[in-house]
Amino acid sequence: MQLTIRNLNKTYANGVKALQDVSLDIPTGMYGLLGPNGAGKSTLMRTLATLQDADSGSATLGDIDVLKDKDAVRRTLGYLPQEFGVYPRISAVEMLDHLAVLKGIPGGERKGVVSALLQRVNLWEHRKKAVSSYSGGMRQRFGIAQALLGDPKLIIVDEPTAGLDPGERNRFYNLLSEIGENVIVILSTHIVEDVKELCSNMAIINNGQVLYAGAPEASLAALQGKVWQKTIAKSEIEDYQQRYGERLISSKLVAGKPIINVYSNDDPNDGFAAAPAGLEEVFFSKINGVA
Ligand code: ADP
To answer: Which of 11, 16, 159 should be mutated for ligand 1, with most atoms under 8 A from CB?
Structure first.
């Protein structure tokens, strides 16, 4: 099964071009859709989830025409939106059972399906608590349980790790990596770490355009020898920003001192040392339009 997206376009009424000729081939496994806020990720996710229409283009999932045959997509889709509403006093087991009814899971199977899913996402012992009382990480795991109802072949998770603390994020990564084997899981995120940890394929998008599509390792290989690093003083940051502009692709503080990374085909001859490229550098060199 593959999801094939061709020349998808969407312009909102206010003139914002949220998708511009987006074409992607998405195989089974975990697929990272990486882009900063406002890149067009949610627009793409919501279009694939049949919640809104594109202006033009096509998307096919196996032999399903995603943009036209919405009922068929919905039967095989699991969707974890950025925010999902929960009823105040309803327990996880009741809510999942209710969602299973809506998904059309037959009465005889429902109890077993609901129990198995709650165990799978590690919420069994909390099943009688209200979902509204859950922590962020527990809520997202509940979100995965509901997305898995009905054995979907396509699972879409929109910015699932925003707001999770590092421990919760790790547990959530483990859960996602377990489900991504025989299905297509599209993970939209602005957090490079998410893609690094989980995804065998990825796309980087910005301003509604695909800037890179392929394996993360291939993007790293293409950047080898082009990242140059230097530790500078805090007071020098603006100087370097002026000097290198968009080619200054990342900076981080290590023990209170800024370490900057610059994109350059050759040694800038400015006291820099060659540095290994990370996905962070790939991301910012694409977003800044220098690579
Ligand atoms: P992301 O999920 O990557 O943050 P979005 O798809 O939400 O990006 O948004 C892409 C662009 O479209 C942004 O500039 C956003 O402000 C704009 N946008 C999103 N939804 C609407 C809408 N309903 N009407 C007008 N503009 C929108």
So the answer is: 16
Predicted TM-score (pTM) above 0.85: yes
CATH number of 221-288: 3.30.70
Q: At what angle do helices 166-179 and 136-147 cross, to 10 degrees?
A: 10
- pLDDT, one tens digit per residue, over 124-176 is 999 999 999 999 899 999 999 999 999 999 999 998 888 888 888 888 888 88
3-state secondary structure of 90: coil
| Centroid of ligand 1 to alpha carbon of 12 (angstroms) | 8
Superfamily of domain 3-215: P-loop containing nucleotide triphosphate hydrolases (3.40.50.300)
Could you tell me if the CB of 42 is within 6 A of ligand 1? yes
Cα distances (Å, whole numbers) of residue 188 to 32, 60, 83: 6, 19, 13
Cα 267 to Cα 2: distance, rounded to the nearest angstrom: 42
190-228 pLDDT, tens digit per residue, is 999 899 889 999 999 999 999 999 999 999 999 999 999
Contact (CB, 8 A) for 198 and 187: yes
